[in-house]
C-alpha cells in the first residue's frame, strides 16, 4: 500500500445495524404508540419517544422526520429496507392476521404500525423484536460475521 493510499475505514451500514440502533434509541429515549413520535413534546425536541418505525427513522436520518418520503433517495431506501426486515420478522414470529367478518384475509403482512400500537404491547417487546429481527438478518446475510 502506498503512503498516500487512504483505505476505507467505514463498513456499510446494514438493516441489522439500523434495527439495533432503533432498539438502542428506544432504550435511551423511550417508546411511544399512536404516532411516530410523542407529539406532546415541542416539534424541535431532538429525541422524543418514538414508535418502532419512528425509531428506525431516527436511526436512518439522525433526526425526527414526519414524512419519510421527503428524505433523500438513499435514506428512503435504507429506511424501507430496515422496516421490511422488521415486517418479515414479525410475519414469521409474531403474525397478526387481519380478517374481515366473512373470514377473508385482509392483510397478508403484519404491519409494524398496528403491531407497535397494540394496547397489550410493551416497550420491551418492541425492543426485543427489533434486536431479534437484526439477529435474523445477520444470520441470513453474513458469513462468519462479515457481509455476504
Question: Can you put this structure into words, describing what you see?
Answer:
InterPro entries: DUF6197. Pfam families: DUF6197. The protein is mainly alpha-helical and 148 residues long. It has one domain. It has helices at residues 15-29, 52-61, 73-93, 112-117, 123-141; strands at 98-99, 105-107, 142-143, 146-147. It has a two-stranded antiparallel sheet. Strands 3-4 form a two-stranded antiparallel sheet. Helix 1 (15-29) packs across helix 3.
Question: Which descriptors apply to this entry?
Answer:
148 residues, mainly alpha, two-stranded antiparallel ribbon, 5 helices, 4 strands, 48% helix, DUF6197
Helix content: 40-55%
Number of helices: 5
Summarize the main sheet.
2 strands, antiparallel
Molecular shape: globular
**Major beta sheet, strand line-up:** 1-2
- Name the poorly predicted regions: none
Element order, helices and strands? Answer: HHHEEHHEE
Number of domains: 1
* SS-based class: mainly alpha
**How large a portion of the residues is in β-strands, by DSSP E?**
5-15%
Separation, N- and C-terminal Cα atoms: 25 Å
Mean pLDDT: 86
Instruction: Kindly provide the radius of gyration, computed on alpha-carbon positions and rounded to a whole number of angstroms.
Output: 17 Å
Number of strands: 4
Pfam families: DUF6197
InterPro entries: DUF6197
Amino acid at each position: 500500500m502506498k503512503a498516500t493510499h487512504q483505505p476505507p475505514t467505514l463498513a456499510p451500514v446494514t438493516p441489522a445495524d439500523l434495527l439495533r440502533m432503533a432498539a438502542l434509541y428506544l432504550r435511551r429515549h423511550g417508546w411511544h404508540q399512536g404516532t411516530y413520535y410523542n407529539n406532546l413534546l415541542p416539534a424541535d425536541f431532538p429525541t422524543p419517544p418514538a414508535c418502532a418505525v419512528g425509531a428506525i427513522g431516527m436511526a436512518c436520518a439522525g433526526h425526527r422526520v414526519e414524512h419519510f418520503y421527503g428524505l433523500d433517495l438513499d435514506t428512503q431506501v435504507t429506511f424501507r429496507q430496515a422496516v421490511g426486515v422488521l415486517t418479515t420478522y414479525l410475519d414469521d414470529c409474531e403474525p397478526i392476521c387481519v380478517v374481515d367478518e366473512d373470514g377473508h384475509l385482509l392483510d397478508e403482512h403484519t404491519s409494524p404500525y398496528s403491531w407497535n400500537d397494540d394496547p397489550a404491547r410493551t416497550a420491551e417487546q418492541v425492543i426485543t423484536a427489533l434486536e431479534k429481527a437484526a439477529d435474523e438478518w445477520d444470520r441470513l446475510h453474513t458469513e462468519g460475521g462479515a457481509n455476504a
